[in-house]
Amino acid sequence: MTQKEKMISRDQLFLFIIQAQIGVGVLSLPYKLNNSAKGGGGLSVLIAGMTTQMIIILMWAIMKKFPGLNLYTICLKLFGKFIGRIFIIAYTGYFVLLGANIMLSAVELLHRWLLQSTPRWVSLALFSIMTLYLAREKLTVLARFYTLATFLFIPLILLISYGLTQAHMEYMFPLMEKGIVNIIKGARETTISMYGFELMLIIYPFSQGTDKQKLLSISLANLFVTLFYVFVVATCLTVFNSEQLKYIPEPVIYLVKSLNFYIVDRADILFLPIWAITLVCSIVSYCYGAAIGMSILFGKKEHKPFSPLVKVLTFSIALAPMTPAAVHKLDKISEYTAYLFLAGLPLIIYIFSLFMSKKTGDPA
What we know:
Blueprint: H1 3-6, H2 10-21, H3 29-36, H4 41-65, H5 71-113, H6 120-135, H7 139-150, H8 153-161, H9 179-193, H10 200-203, H11 211-239, H12 242-245, H13 251-258, H14 268-297, H15 307-319, H16 324-353
Helix pairs in contact: 2-7, 2-11, 2-14, 3-9, 3-11, 4-9, 4-11, 4-16, 5-6, 5-14, 5-15, 5-16, 6-14, 6-15, 7-14, 13-14, 14-15
């Protein structure tokens, strides 16, 4: 595959990051933020958005130093074959873990609201088949699919917006009721719900435009996601009071379910299948990133042969937890792992790159 065939436009880069960032976490985010920040939940999201933007700038600085290289080839260039391969294995494992965790969270959510009698392995297998079909394709194919999937945000936003007809603005006030410390704590929880932007480390060299134009596209995507999260959190915080939110783990779905559209008895039955397409995009992004890592690790030009292996791994990891406690443990492992791979390792890579006398790389 030639470099030209892999290139995606700036608009497609923008939409790719959006689809990778928005996942299942936003559906329960108002519940989590109510527990930590109450009415200041919207402020927590804004702080998380700014934190995410700082990490994006850090990652952009790394990519700018090595034009034409992606995360994996940068690691090989900086640390040599042995340590570089360890970094590749680590990031590949991280992408597999995140893909499995998102898939498991999506299945658990669908089983609670729609598919109570469906065996979990069946739902996981269906998600695996859908995501394998896409993850084995070229980046340009993924970008086109994500572009089409983006139009599904329109009915999702409209459904949530309808909840504003039941809004009570006084439920959000006072904004600083829980104090700045708890608002910052809520921002930490929100940041984990917004991961996905780190995939820029994989697709950055295969997108069109200058470094500044690429940074602008990714930053605008992060801004869109941040504002979308603020909108969702603020809507739920104004529809449900603080005491009600304590007993509603997925307030976004509960909000949609409670709406009366006259011709539709349960709007959540429409909402969840549409939302599932967004989750598919997020899972595919991580599986694609993991397959790319395996192809570079084994010195192959195509990632396609490694996509089935990635899906077997994500399916196995997602199938392993059999109890709610085990599911929660996997979620926590993914959360703490994300801290390391979102900020810790990129910072190490950037600091190490400062000692490199040569600032350019060859095309990947």
